[in-house]
Protein backbone atom coordinates (compact mmCIF):
# COMPACT_ATOMS: atom_id res chain seq x y z
CA UNK A 1 0.00 0.00 0.00
CA UNK A 2 1.35 3.40 -0.86
CA UNK A 3 3.77 5.23 1.36
CA UNK A 4 3.02 3.28 4.48
CA UNK A 5 1.60 -0.12 3.88
CA UNK A 6 2.57 -2.98 1.65
CA UNK A 7 0.30 -4.73 -0.73
CA UNK A 8 0.39 -8.40 -0.01
CA UNK A 9 2.40 -10.39 -2.47
CA UNK A 10 1.40 -14.00 -2.82
CA UNK A 11 2.73 -16.79 -4.94
CA UNK A 12 -0.61 -16.93 -6.67
CA UNK A 13 -2.08 -13.47 -6.21
CA UNK A 14 -5.79 -13.54 -5.56
CA UNK A 15 -8.15 -11.21 -7.34
CA UNK A 16 -8.46 -9.21 -4.14
CA UNK A 17 -4.68 -8.92 -3.75
CA UNK A 18 -4.18 -7.74 -7.32
CA UNK A 19 -7.05 -5.26 -7.13
CA UNK A 20 -5.95 -3.78 -3.83
CA UNK A 21 -2.32 -3.58 -4.89
CA UNK A 22 -3.23 -1.71 -8.03
CA UNK A 23 -5.90 0.51 -6.58
CA UNK A 24 -3.99 1.97 -3.70
CA UNK A 25 -0.88 2.34 -5.83
CA UNK A 26 -2.70 5.02 -7.74
CA UNK A 27 -2.14 7.44 -4.86
CA UNK A 28 1.47 6.50 -4.13
CA UNK A 29 4.10 9.22 -4.33
CA UNK A 30 7.83 9.23 -3.87
CA UNK A 31 9.68 9.32 -0.60
CA UNK A 32 7.38 7.12 1.45
CA UNK A 33 7.76 3.67 2.86
CA UNK A 34 8.09 1.24 -0.05
CA UNK A 35 5.01 -0.70 -1.07
CA UNK A 36 6.39 -3.98 0.17
CA UNK A 37 5.72 -4.35 3.83
CA UNK A 38 2.92 -5.27 5.37
CA UNK A 39 -23.46 2.75 -13.42
CA UNK A 40 -25.11 1.59 -10.30
CA UNK A 41 -27.18 -1.18 -8.91
CA UNK A 42 -30.69 -1.78 -7.67
CA UNK A 43 -29.36 -3.27 -4.49
CA UNK A 44 -32.51 -3.19 -2.43
CA UNK A 45 -34.32 -5.56 -4.79
CA UNK A 46 -31.58 -8.18 -4.87
CA UNK A 47 -32.21 -8.42 -8.61
CA UNK A 48 -29.27 -6.35 -9.70
CA UNK A 49 -29.23 -3.65 -12.35
CA UNK A 50 -27.54 -0.50 -13.51
CA UNK A 51 -28.10 3.18 -14.19
CA UNK A 52 -26.88 4.44 -17.55
CA UNK A 53 -27.74 6.51 -20.59
CA UNK A 54 -29.50 9.82 -20.02
CA UNK A 55 -30.24 8.95 -16.40
CA UNK A 56 -26.56 8.43 -15.71
CA UNK A 57 -25.42 11.59 -17.49
CA UNK A 58 -27.73 13.66 -15.30
CA UNK A 59 -25.95 12.37 -12.23
CA UNK A 60 -22.36 12.89 -13.30
CA UNK A 61 -20.31 15.96 -12.36
CA UNK A 62 -19.16 18.20 -15.21
CA UNK A 63 -15.51 17.50 -15.98
CA UNK A 64 -13.19 20.49 -15.89
CA UNK A 65 -9.55 19.49 -16.37
CA UNK A 66 -7.07 20.96 -13.93
CA UNK A 67 -4.71 23.56 -15.34
CA UNK A 68 -2.75 24.03 -12.15
CA UNK A 69 0.33 21.94 -13.00
CA UNK A 70 1.56 20.62 -16.37
CA UNK A 71 2.93 17.04 -16.31
CA UNK A 72 6.45 16.25 -17.52
CA UNK A 73 5.09 13.27 -19.47
CA UNK A 74 1.65 13.87 -21.01
CA UNK A 75 -0.99 11.21 -21.45
CA UNK A 76 -0.62 9.14 -24.64
CA UNK A 77 -3.04 6.38 -25.64
CA UNK A 78 -4.90 6.96 -22.39
CA UNK A 79 -1.83 6.55 -20.17
CA UNK A 80 -1.59 8.32 -16.83
CA UNK A 81 0.43 11.55 -16.94
CA UNK A 82 3.88 11.42 -15.36
CA UNK A 83 5.92 13.73 -13.16
CA UNK A 84 9.68 13.20 -13.02
CA UNK A 85 10.46 16.33 -11.04
CA UNK A 86 9.33 17.90 -7.81
CA UNK A 87 8.60 21.59 -7.71
CA UNK A 88 10.77 23.60 -5.31
CA UNK A 89 8.83 24.50 -2.19
CA UNK A 90 8.79 28.18 -3.13
CA UNK A 91 7.20 27.35 -6.50
CA UNK A 92 4.35 25.20 -5.20
CA UNK A 93 1.01 26.68 -6.12
CA UNK A 94 -2.17 26.71 -4.06
CA UNK A 95 -5.28 25.24 -5.65
CA UNK A 96 -7.51 26.16 -2.70
CA UNK A 97 -7.87 29.60 -1.13
CA UNK A 98 -7.72 29.66 2.63
CA UNK A 99 -9.06 26.95 4.91
CA UNK A 100 -11.94 25.00 3.39
CA UNK A 101 -13.39 23.84 6.69
CA UNK A 102 -15.56 25.69 9.17
CA UNK A 103 -14.38 24.05 12.34
CA UNK A 104 -16.41 20.86 12.09
CA UNK A 105 -15.31 17.49 13.47
CA UNK A 106 -15.65 14.26 11.49
CA UNK A 107 -14.81 10.58 11.92
CA UNK A 108 -13.42 8.36 9.16
CA UNK A 109 -13.64 4.55 9.10
CA UNK A 110 -11.06 3.05 6.74
CA UNK A 111 -8.54 0.21 6.33
CA UNK A 112 -4.79 0.40 6.78
CA UNK A 113 -2.16 -2.24 6.18
CA UNK A 114 0.57 -2.08 8.79
CA UNK A 115 0.97 -0.06 11.97
CA UNK A 116 -1.50 2.86 12.23
CA UNK A 117 0.06 6.29 12.78
CA UNK A 118 -0.20 7.88 16.24
CA UNK A 119 -3.61 9.43 16.87
CA UNK A 120 -2.23 12.79 17.99
CA UNK A 121 0.57 13.00 15.44
CA UNK A 122 2.13 16.21 14.22
CA UNK A 123 0.98 15.22 10.74
CA UNK A 124 -2.69 15.03 11.70
CA UNK A 125 -2.42 18.33 13.57
CA UNK A 126 -0.82 20.08 10.60
CA UNK A 127 -3.28 18.78 8.01
CA UNK A 128 -6.34 19.37 10.16
CA UNK A 129 -5.11 22.90 10.83
CA UNK A 130 -4.79 23.51 7.08
CA UNK A 131 -8.22 21.97 6.49
CA UNK A 132 -9.92 24.04 9.16
CA UNK A 133 -11.67 20.89 10.36
CA UNK A 134 -10.95 18.04 12.76
CA UNK A 135 -10.68 14.70 10.96
CA UNK A 136 -10.39 11.74 13.32
CA UNK A 137 -9.48 8.41 11.76
CA UNK A 138 -10.66 5.01 12.93
CA UNK A 139 -8.13 2.77 11.10
CA UNK A 140 -8.88 -0.94 10.78
CA UNK A 141 -6.73 -3.90 9.79
CA UNK A 142 -7.01 -4.02 6.01
CA UNK A 143 -6.75 -7.81 5.98
CA UNK A 144 -9.97 -8.23 7.97
CA UNK A 145 -11.64 -4.99 6.90
CA UNK A 146 -14.61 -6.62 5.18
CA UNK A 147 -15.73 -8.38 8.34
CA UNK A 148 -15.45 -5.24 10.46
CA UNK A 149 -17.14 -3.13 7.81
CA UNK A 150 -20.15 -5.45 7.61
CA UNK A 151 -20.49 -5.51 11.38
CA UNK A 152 -20.35 -1.73 11.67
CA UNK A 153 -22.87 -1.16 8.89
CA UNK A 154 -25.22 -3.68 10.48
CA UNK A 155 -24.92 -2.00 13.87
CA UNK A 156 -25.92 1.43 12.63
CA UNK A 157 -23.07 3.09 14.54
CA UNK A 158 -21.49 4.46 11.39
CA UNK A 159 -18.69 7.01 11.06
CA UNK A 160 -19.24 10.24 9.17
CA UNK A 161 -17.05 9.01 6.29
CA UNK A 162 -16.59 5.34 5.39
CA UNK A 163 -14.13 3.95 2.85
CA UNK A 164 -15.27 0.87 0.89
CA UNK A 165 -13.15 -0.89 -1.76
CA UNK A 166 -14.72 -2.74 -4.68
CA UNK A 167 -13.39 -6.10 -3.55
CA UNK A 168 -15.42 -5.92 -0.34
CA UNK A 169 -18.73 -5.14 -2.09
CA UNK A 170 -20.28 -8.57 -1.88
CA UNK A 171 -23.48 -9.93 -0.43
CA UNK A 172 -25.66 -7.37 1.32
CA UNK A 173 -23.10 -4.61 1.36
CA UNK A 174 -24.28 -3.06 -1.90
CA UNK A 175 -27.72 -2.66 -0.41
CA UNK A 176 -26.22 -1.07 2.68
CA UNK A 177 -24.52 1.56 0.53
CA UNK A 178 -27.88 2.79 -0.73
CA UNK A 179 -29.47 2.55 2.70
CA UNK A 180 -26.75 4.10 4.83
CA UNK A 181 -24.99 6.75 2.74
CA UNK A 182 -25.86 10.19 1.40
CA UNK A 183 -26.80 11.15 -2.13
CA UNK A 184 -24.11 13.58 -3.31
CA UNK A 185 -25.90 14.45 -6.55
CA UNK A 186 -27.51 17.62 -5.15
CA UNK A 187 -24.01 18.90 -4.39
CA UNK A 188 -21.89 17.56 -7.26
CA UNK A 189 -23.97 16.61 -10.31
CA UNK A 190 -23.57 18.69 -13.45
CA UNK A 191 -22.10 22.16 -12.99
CA UNK A 192 -22.65 22.04 -9.22
CA UNK A 193 -19.22 20.40 -8.92
CA UNK A 194 -17.54 23.57 -10.22
CA UNK A 195 -17.76 24.85 -6.67
CA UNK A 196 -15.06 22.25 -5.99
CA UNK A 197 -12.51 22.56 -8.85
CA UNK A 198 -10.28 19.68 -7.76
CA UNK A 199 -13.26 17.34 -7.60
CA UNK A 200 -14.37 18.58 -11.02
CA UNK A 201 -10.96 17.54 -12.39
CA UNK A 202 -11.50 13.89 -11.43
CA UNK A 203 -12.11 11.90 -14.65
CA UNK A 204 -15.75 11.33 -15.58
CA UNK A 205 -15.25 7.56 -15.83
CA UNK A 206 -14.29 7.47 -12.13
CA UNK A 207 -17.43 9.41 -11.21
CA UNK A 208 -19.50 7.06 -13.36
CA UNK A 209 -18.43 4.16 -11.17
CA UNK A 210 -19.38 6.20 -8.11
CA UNK A 211 -23.09 5.81 -8.81
CA UNK A 212 -24.76 3.32 -6.48
CA UNK A 213 -28.47 2.60 -6.21
CA UNK A 214 -29.25 5.17 -8.88
CA UNK A 215 -27.57 7.98 -6.95
CA UNK A 216 -24.13 9.57 -6.99
CA UNK A 217 -22.90 8.39 -3.60
CA UNK A 218 -19.14 7.77 -3.70
CA UNK A 219 -16.06 9.97 -3.68
CA UNK A 220 -13.69 7.99 -5.91
CA UNK A 221 -10.05 7.04 -5.97
CA UNK A 222 -9.32 7.09 -9.73
CA UNK A 223 -7.27 4.17 -11.03
CA UNK A 224 -4.59 3.92 -13.68
CA UNK A 225 -5.88 2.32 -16.90
CA UNK A 226 -3.69 -0.83 -16.99
CA UNK A 227 -2.50 -1.13 -13.41
CA UNK A 228 -4.06 -4.44 -12.48
CA UNK A 229 -1.46 -6.96 -13.67
CA UNK A 230 2.02 -6.20 -14.99
CA UNK A 231 4.59 -8.87 -15.90
CA UNK A 232 7.78 -7.59 -14.28
CA UNK A 233 11.27 -8.81 -15.10
CA UNK A 234 14.77 -8.20 -13.77
CA UNK A 235 16.15 -5.98 -16.51
CA UNK A 236 19.55 -5.78 -14.82
CA UNK A 237 19.99 -9.56 -14.85
CA UNK A 238 18.54 -9.89 -18.34
CA UNK A 239 21.19 -7.50 -19.66
CA UNK A 240 23.98 -9.18 -17.71
CA UNK A 241 23.03 -12.66 -18.94
CA UNK A 242 22.03 -11.60 -22.45
CA UNK A 243 18.44 -12.79 -22.15
CA UNK A 244 16.02 -11.54 -24.82
CA UNK A 245 12.59 -10.35 -23.72
CA UNK A 246 10.07 -12.81 -25.22
CA UNK A 247 7.53 -11.75 -27.82
CA UNK A 248 5.31 -14.84 -27.92
CA UNK A 249 4.08 -17.59 -25.63
CA UNK A 250 6.52 -20.09 -27.15
CA UNK A 251 9.44 -17.67 -26.78
CA UNK A 252 8.51 -17.25 -23.13
CA UNK A 253 8.69 -21.02 -22.58
CA UNK A 254 12.05 -21.17 -24.36
CA UNK A 255 13.42 -18.31 -22.28
CA UNK A 256 12.11 -19.95 -19.10
CA UNK A 257 14.04 -23.09 -19.96
CA UNK A 258 17.20 -21.06 -20.56
CA UNK A 259 16.93 -19.17 -17.27
CA UNK A 260 16.02 -22.02 -14.93
CA UNK A 261 19.01 -23.45 -13.05
CA UNK A 262 17.74 -25.20 -9.90
CA UNK A 263 21.25 -26.10 -8.74
CA UNK A 264 22.04 -22.38 -8.67
CA UNK A 265 18.66 -21.66 -7.04
CA UNK A 266 17.43 -19.66 -10.01
CA UNK A 267 14.02 -20.18 -11.62
CA UNK A 268 12.46 -18.34 -14.50
CA UNK A 269 9.31 -17.06 -12.88
CA UNK A 270 6.64 -16.96 -10.27
CA UNK A 271 3.07 -18.13 -10.95
CA UNK A 272 2.18 -16.29 -14.19
CA UNK A 273 -1.52 -17.22 -14.33
CA UNK A 274 -2.77 -13.63 -14.26
CA UNK A 275 -0.45 -12.58 -17.09
CA UNK A 276 -1.26 -15.76 -19.00
CA UNK A 277 -4.90 -14.74 -19.24
CA UNK A 278 -3.89 -11.42 -20.77
CA UNK A 279 -1.36 -12.99 -23.14
CA UNK A 280 -4.10 -15.26 -24.44
CA UNK A 281 -6.58 -12.41 -24.78
CA UNK A 282 -9.00 -13.25 -21.98
CA UNK A 283 -11.22 -10.46 -20.61
CA UNK A 284 -10.96 -9.34 -17.00
CA UNK A 285 -12.80 -10.03 -13.78
CA UNK A 286 -16.40 -9.59 -12.65
CA UNK A 287 -18.36 -7.89 -14.16
CA UNK A 288 -16.02 -7.42 -17.14
CA UNK A 289 -15.59 -11.14 -17.85
CA UNK A 290 -17.87 -11.19 -20.91
CA UNK A 291 -17.14 -10.82 -24.62
CA UNK A 292 -19.65 -10.64 -27.45
CA UNK A 293 -19.26 -13.20 -30.25
CA UNK A 294 -21.72 -13.56 -33.10
CA UNK A 295 -24.29 -11.57 -31.19
CA UNK A 296 -24.04 -13.74 -28.08
CA UNK A 297 -22.41 -13.11 -24.73
CA UNK A 298 -19.61 -15.54 -23.94
CA UNK A 299 -18.04 -15.82 -20.49
CA UNK A 300 -14.26 -15.84 -20.22
CA UNK A 301 -14.22 -19.43 -18.92
CA UNK A 302 -16.07 -20.56 -22.05
CA UNK A 303 -13.40 -19.20 -24.37
CA UNK A 304 -10.79 -21.45 -25.97
CA UNK A 305 -8.37 -18.72 -24.92
CA UNK A 306 -9.05 -19.48 -21.27
CA UNK A 307 -8.24 -23.19 -21.63
CA UNK A 308 -5.17 -22.34 -23.73
CA UNK A 309 -3.95 -19.99 -20.99
CA UNK A 310 -4.42 -22.75 -18.42
CA UNK A 311 -2.51 -25.23 -20.57
CA UNK A 312 0.37 -22.81 -21.22
CA UNK A 313 0.66 -21.99 -17.54
CA UNK A 314 0.51 -25.70 -16.71
CA UNK A 315 3.54 -26.23 -18.96
CA UNK A 316 5.51 -23.66 -16.96
CA UNK A 317 4.81 -25.58 -13.77
CA UNK A 318 5.29 -29.06 -15.20
CA UNK A 319 8.63 -28.10 -16.76
CA UNK A 320 9.95 -26.84 -13.42
CA UNK A 321 10.31 -23.23 -14.54
CA UNK A 322 8.21 -21.85 -11.65
CA UNK A 323 9.92 -21.27 -8.32
CA UNK A 324 9.12 -24.23 -6.02
CA UNK A 325 7.84 -21.94 -3.28
CA UNK A 326 5.34 -20.52 -5.76
CA UNK A 327 4.35 -24.06 -6.68
CA UNK A 328 3.73 -24.69 -2.99
CA UNK A 329 1.56 -21.57 -2.84
CA UNK A 330 3.60 -19.83 -0.14
CA UNK A 331 2.21 -16.36 0.37
CA UNK A 332 4.00 -13.03 0.73
CA UNK A 333 7.34 -14.23 -0.61
CA UNK A 334 7.22 -13.79 -4.39
CA UNK A 335 8.65 -10.28 -4.32
CA UNK A 336 11.46 -11.36 -2.01
CA UNK A 337 12.34 -14.18 -4.40
CA UNK A 338 12.23 -11.73 -7.30
CA UNK A 339 14.41 -9.06 -5.69
CA UNK A 340 16.92 -11.69 -4.49
CA UNK A 341 17.26 -13.04 -8.02
CA UNK A 342 15.79 -16.47 -7.31
CA UNK A 343 13.06 -15.76 -9.87
CA UNK A 344 13.49 -13.29 -12.72
CA UNK A 345 9.88 -12.76 -13.84
CA UNK A 346 6.75 -12.18 -11.78
CA UNK A 347 3.33 -10.60 -12.25
CA UNK A 348 1.71 -8.25 -9.77
CA UNK A 349 -0.03 -4.89 -9.44
CA UNK A 350 1.82 -1.74 -10.42
CA UNK A 351 2.53 -0.88 -6.78
CA UNK A 352 5.54 -3.16 -7.01
CA UNK A 353 7.25 -1.05 -9.67
CA UNK A 354 7.99 1.81 -7.31
CA UNK A 355 8.02 -0.33 -4.19
CA UNK A 356 10.79 -2.65 -5.40
CA UNK A 357 12.76 0.26 -6.86
CA UNK A 358 12.61 2.12 -3.55
CA UNK A 359 13.49 -0.90 -1.44
CA UNK A 360 16.49 -1.93 -3.52
CA UNK A 361 17.93 1.54 -4.24
CA UNK A 362 20.52 1.48 -1.45
CA UNK A 363 21.29 -2.21 -0.81
CA UNK A 364 21.36 -3.11 -4.51
CA UNK A 365 21.97 -0.03 -6.70
CA UNK A 366 22.26 -2.17 -9.85
CA UNK A 367 18.74 -3.54 -9.35
CA UNK A 368 16.37 -2.65 -12.20
CA UNK A 369 12.77 -3.78 -12.43
CA UNK A 370 11.06 -3.38 -15.78
CA UNK A 371 7.59 -4.04 -17.16
CA UNK A 372 7.49 -6.64 -19.91
CA UNK A 373 5.42 -5.61 -22.90
CA UNK A 374 2.44 -7.86 -23.41
CA UNK A 375 2.32 -9.89 -26.60
CA UNK A 376 -0.32 -12.00 -28.27
CA UNK A 377 0.12 -15.72 -27.65
CA UNK A 378 1.14 -16.23 -31.28
CA UNK A 379 3.51 -13.27 -31.29
CA UNK A 380 0.99 -10.83 -32.75
CA UNK A 381 -0.52 -7.79 -31.12
CA UNK A 382 -1.96 -8.37 -27.64
CA UNK A 383 -5.59 -7.84 -26.72
CA UNK A 384 -5.79 -5.80 -23.54
CA UNK A 385 -8.84 -4.66 -21.62
CA UNK A 386 -8.95 -1.52 -19.55
CA UNK A 387 -9.40 -2.00 -15.84
CA UNK A 388 -12.12 -0.26 -13.82
CA UNK A 389 -11.61 3.52 -13.71
CA UNK A 390 -12.12 3.44 -9.94
CA UNK A 391 -12.44 0.70 -7.35
CA UNK A 392 -12.19 2.47 -4.00
CA UNK A 393 -14.66 5.02 -2.69
CA UNK A 394 -15.55 6.88 0.46
CA UNK A 395 -19.16 7.49 1.41
CA UNK A 396 -20.79 10.09 3.64
CA UNK A 397 -23.24 9.14 6.36
CA UNK A 398 -26.78 9.93 5.20
CA UNK A 399 -27.60 11.44 8.62
CA UNK A 400 -25.20 14.32 8.06
CA UNK A 401 -26.82 17.72 7.64
CA UNK A 402 -26.53 19.69 4.40
CA UNK A 403 -24.03 22.10 5.96
CA UNK A 404 -21.82 19.26 7.20
CA UNK A 405 -21.88 17.48 3.84
CA UNK A 406 -20.84 20.70 2.14
CA UNK A 407 -18.00 21.14 4.63
CA UNK A 408 -16.76 17.59 3.97
CA UNK A 409 -16.88 18.21 0.22
CA UNK A 410 -14.87 21.40 0.65
CA UNK A 411 -12.32 19.44 2.67
CA UNK A 412 -12.33 16.72 -0.02
CA UNK A 413 -11.64 19.38 -2.63
CA UNK A 414 -8.47 20.29 -0.69
CA UNK A 415 -7.41 16.64 -0.41
CA UNK A 416 -7.99 16.07 -4.15
CA UNK A 417 -5.47 18.76 -5.10
CA UNK A 418 -3.25 17.64 -8.00
CA UNK A 419 0.45 16.85 -7.89
CA UNK A 420 2.68 19.90 -7.61
CA UNK A 421 0.41 21.92 -5.33
CA UNK A 422 0.91 23.06 -1.74
CA UNK A 423 -2.03 20.95 -0.67
CA UNK A 424 -0.69 17.79 -2.32
CA UNK A 425 2.76 18.27 -0.77
CA UNK A 426 1.21 18.55 2.68
CA UNK A 427 -1.14 15.58 2.27
CA UNK A 428 1.52 13.26 0.81
CA UNK A 429 4.66 14.39 2.66
CA UNK A 430 3.61 16.30 5.74
CA UNK A 431 5.55 19.33 6.96
CA UNK A 432 8.99 20.11 5.54
CA UNK A 433 11.64 19.80 8.24
CA UNK A 434 9.31 17.75 10.41
CA UNK A 435 8.24 14.89 8.15
CA UNK A 436 10.42 15.30 5.09
CA UNK A 437 13.49 16.99 3.69
CA UNK A 438 14.44 17.84 0.13
CA UNK A 439 17.01 15.60 -1.55
CA UNK A 440 18.08 16.76 -5.00
CA UNK A 441 14.93 18.84 -5.04
CA UNK A 442 12.61 15.90 -4.28
CA UNK A 443 10.82 15.54 -0.92
CA UNK A 444 11.96 12.47 1.00
CA UNK A 445 10.32 11.38 4.25
CA UNK A 446 12.38 11.02 7.39
CA UNK A 447 11.62 8.40 10.04
CA UNK A 448 8.88 10.55 11.57
CA UNK A 449 7.30 11.04 8.16
CA UNK A 450 7.41 7.31 7.46
CA UNK A 451 5.57 6.63 10.72
CA UNK A 452 3.01 9.42 10.57
CA UNK A 453 2.35 10.28 6.92
CA UNK A 454 0.23 7.44 5.64
CA UNK A 455 -2.62 7.36 3.15
CA UNK A 456 -5.35 8.14 5.63
CA UNK A 457 -6.54 11.35 3.95
CA UNK A 458 -5.96 9.93 0.47
CA UNK A 459 -8.56 7.24 1.12
CA UNK A 460 -11.20 9.96 1.47
CA UNK A 461 -10.69 11.01 -2.15
CA UNK A 462 -7.85 11.21 -4.67
CA UNK A 463 -7.09 13.29 -7.76
CA UNK A 464 -6.61 11.86 -11.23
CA UNK A 465 -4.13 8.98 -11.09
CA UNK A 466 -0.63 10.01 -12.10
CA UNK A 467 2.86 8.52 -11.98
CA UNK A 468 4.75 10.90 -9.72
CA UNK A 469 8.03 9.68 -8.28
CA UNK A 470 10.61 12.46 -8.56
CA UNK A 471 13.14 10.45 -6.55
CA UNK A 472 13.18 7.85 -9.35
CA UNK A 473 12.57 9.76 -12.59
CA UNK A 474 13.71 6.89 -14.82
CA UNK A 475 11.14 4.62 -13.21
CA UNK A 476 8.46 7.21 -14.07
CA UNK A 477 9.64 7.26 -17.70
CA UNK A 478 9.69 3.46 -17.81
CA UNK A 479 6.19 3.05 -16.41
CA UNK A 480 4.65 5.83 -18.50
CA UNK A 481 6.36 4.40 -21.59
CA UNK A 482 4.95 0.95 -20.83
CA UNK A 483 1.44 2.38 -20.43
CA UNK A 484 1.74 4.36 -23.66
CA UNK A 485 2.86 1.32 -25.63
CA UNK A 486 0.27 -0.98 -24.13
CA UNK A 487 -2.44 1.66 -24.45
CA UNK A 488 -2.36 1.21 -28.23
CA UNK A 489 -3.87 -2.25 -27.75
CA UNK A 490 -6.25 -1.50 -24.89
CA UNK A 491 -9.99 -1.42 -25.34
CA UNK A 492 -12.98 -1.01 -23.10
CA UNK A 493 -14.56 -4.25 -21.94
CA UNK A 494 -18.27 -4.82 -22.12
CA UNK A 495 -20.03 -3.01 -19.26
CA UNK A 496 -17.00 -0.71 -18.80
CA UNK A 497 -17.59 1.87 -16.12
CA UNK A 498 -20.82 0.31 -14.90
CA UNK A 499 -21.30 -0.40 -11.22
CA UNK A 500 -23.05 -3.76 -11.49
CA UNK A 501 -24.39 -6.03 -8.79
CA UNK A 502 -25.21 -9.50 -10.01
CA UNK A 503 -28.36 -11.12 -8.58
CA UNK A 504 -27.48 -12.81 -5.30
CA UNK A 505 -28.31 -16.27 -6.61
CA UNK A 506 -25.54 -15.97 -9.21
CA UNK A 507 -23.01 -13.90 -7.28
CA UNK A 508 -20.73 -16.81 -6.29
CA UNK A 509 -20.91 -18.82 -9.52
CA UNK A 510 -17.46 -17.71 -10.67
CA UNK A 511 -15.75 -18.06 -7.29
CA UNK A 512 -14.62 -21.72 -7.66
CA UNK A 513 -12.64 -20.95 -10.80
CA UNK A 514 -9.86 -19.19 -8.90
CA UNK A 515 -9.00 -22.32 -6.91
CA UNK A 516 -9.63 -24.50 -9.95
CA UNK A 517 -7.02 -22.57 -11.94
CA UNK A 518 -4.47 -23.05 -9.14
CA UNK A 519 -5.12 -26.80 -9.18
CA UNK A 520 -5.00 -27.17 -12.96
CA UNK A 521 -1.74 -25.29 -13.52
CA UNK A 522 -0.10 -27.26 -10.72
CA UNK A 523 -1.25 -30.56 -12.18
CA UNK A 524 -3.59 -31.44 -9.33
CA UNK A 525 -6.51 -31.29 -11.74
CA UNK A 526 -6.73 -31.64 -15.52
CA UNK A 527 -8.00 -29.54 -18.40
CA UNK A 528 -10.88 -32.03 -18.52
CA UNK A 529 -11.75 -31.06 -14.95
CA UNK A 530 -11.84 -27.44 -16.05
CA UNK A 531 -14.13 -28.31 -18.95
CA UNK A 532 -16.44 -30.16 -16.57
CA UNK A 533 -16.48 -27.15 -14.23
CA UNK A 534 -17.45 -24.94 -17.16
CA UNK A 535 -20.31 -27.27 -18.01
CA UNK A 536 -21.42 -27.24 -14.38
CA UNK A 537 -21.21 -23.44 -14.40
CA UNK A 538 -23.57 -23.25 -17.37
CA UNK A 539 -26.16 -25.62 -15.92
CA UNK A 540 -25.78 -24.24 -12.41
CA UNK A 541 -26.87 -20.73 -13.39
CA UNK A 542 -24.28 -19.48 -15.87
CA UNK A 543 -26.70 -19.57 -18.80
CA UNK A 544 -29.28 -17.66 -16.79
CA UNK A 545 -26.65 -15.15 -15.71
CA UNK A 546 -25.75 -14.75 -19.40
CA UNK A 547 -29.38 -13.92 -20.17
CA UNK A 548 -29.43 -11.40 -17.31
CA UNK A 549 -26.33 -9.64 -18.64
CA UNK A 550 -27.68 -9.78 -22.21
CA UNK A 551 -30.78 -7.87 -21.12
CA UNK A 552 -28.53 -5.38 -19.34
CA UNK A 553 -26.48 -4.96 -22.51
CA UNK A 554 -29.59 -4.48 -24.65
CA UNK A 555 -30.82 -1.83 -22.27
CA UNK A 556 -27.59 0.04 -21.67
CA UNK A 557 -25.20 -0.68 -24.53
CA UNK A 558 -21.58 -1.75 -24.04
CA UNK A 559 -20.74 0.89 -21.46
CA UNK A 560 -18.12 2.34 -23.79
UniProtKB/TrEMBL annotation:
It comes from Streptomyces milbemycinicus. This is Extracellular solute-binding protein. Pfam families: SBP_bac_8 (PF13416). Keywords: Signal, Transport. Belongs to the bacterial solute-binding protein 1 family. The lineage of its organism: Bacteria, Bacillati, Actinomycetota, Actinomycetes, Kitasatosporales. The keyword Acetylation does not apply. PROSITE patterns: TAT. Gene3D superfamilies: Periplasmic binding protein-like II. It comes from the Bacteria. The keyword Signal applies.
Amino acid sequence: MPNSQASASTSTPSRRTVLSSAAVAAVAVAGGVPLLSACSTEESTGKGGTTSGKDLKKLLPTHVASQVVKPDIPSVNGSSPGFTQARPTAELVASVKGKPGKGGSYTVFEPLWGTPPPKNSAYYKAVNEALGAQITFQPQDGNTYGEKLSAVLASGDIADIVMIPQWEMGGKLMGAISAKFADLGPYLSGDKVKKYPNLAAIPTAAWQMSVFGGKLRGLPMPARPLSGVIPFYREDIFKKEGYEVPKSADEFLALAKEITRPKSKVWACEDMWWSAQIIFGCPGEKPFYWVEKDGKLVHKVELDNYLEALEWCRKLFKSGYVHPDAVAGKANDSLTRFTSGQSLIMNDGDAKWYGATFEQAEPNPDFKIQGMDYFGADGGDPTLYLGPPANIWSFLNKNLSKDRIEEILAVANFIAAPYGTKEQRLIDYGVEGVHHTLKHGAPVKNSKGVTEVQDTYRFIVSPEATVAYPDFPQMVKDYCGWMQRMGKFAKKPLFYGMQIQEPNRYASLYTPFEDLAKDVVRGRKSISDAQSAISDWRSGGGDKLRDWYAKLLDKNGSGA
